[in-house]
Amino acid sequence: KLFVEVLEQRRRVLGIEHPHTIIAAGNLASTYHSQGRWSESEKLFVEVLEQRRRVLGIEHPHTIEAASNLAATYGAQGRWEEDAVLLASVVQAGLKALGQHHPHAQAYIRDLAFVYGNLGRKKEAQETRALLISNPPAQST
């Protein structure tokens, strides 16, 4: 209930494309997702993705994350084809924007390989898993 109020107020005061409004929409979408309220979650994740594409561009890490969140909503509903299509673009953008060694890029790759496996697309799952880094470089402190 509080997330709904925050989103409504931010839309009214800040406008729909303000970064804080977009964050509030993403928070509410995540809450709906965790509650299994798929249609509400999907609607907001689509909105967040569209706004982030417009405001930040398609290769911004936050836009990529928004697409990943929407893909997860498709997957949670067993909508594997839609999940795979969106995650393939997430992986491609993540590799370009973040690099293959980035933990988020690696997570996107694992997610896509999992989805391909659920679709019975073994060759694509194997090719995708080949992008995983078995020994990531040590983090500098």
UniProtKB/TrEMBL annotation:
<protein>
    <recommendedName>
        <fullName>Kinesin light chain</fullName>
    </recommendedName>
</protein>
<dbReference type="Pfam" id="PF13424">
    <property type="entry name" value="TPR_12"/>
</dbReference>
<dbReference type="InterPro" id="IPR053137">
    <property type="entry name" value="NLR-like"/>
</dbReference>
<dbReference type="InterPro" id="IPR011990">
    <property type="entry name" value="TPR-like_helical_dom_sf"/>
</dbReference>
